[in-house]
Amino acid sequence: MATIPAMMQAIQVVNPGKHSMLQTQLLATPEPGPDQLLIKVAAAGINRADLMQRRGLYPPPANDSPLLGLEVAGIVAAAGPLHKSWLGKAVFGLVNGGGYAEYALMQAGHAMALPHGYSMAEAAATAEVFLTAYQLLSTIGNVQSSQRVLIHAGASGVGTAAIQLAKALGAQVAVTASSDSKLEACRQLGADIAINYQSAAFEQVLAQQWPDGIQLILDPVAGEYISREIPLLAMDAKLVVYAMMGGREVSSLDLAALFKRRGLLICSTLRNRSNRYKANLTQAFSQSFGKALAQREIAPVLQQQFPWQQAEQAHQLMASNTTIGKLVLTF
Question: Which pLDDT score is estimated for 1?
Answer without folding.
Answer: 63
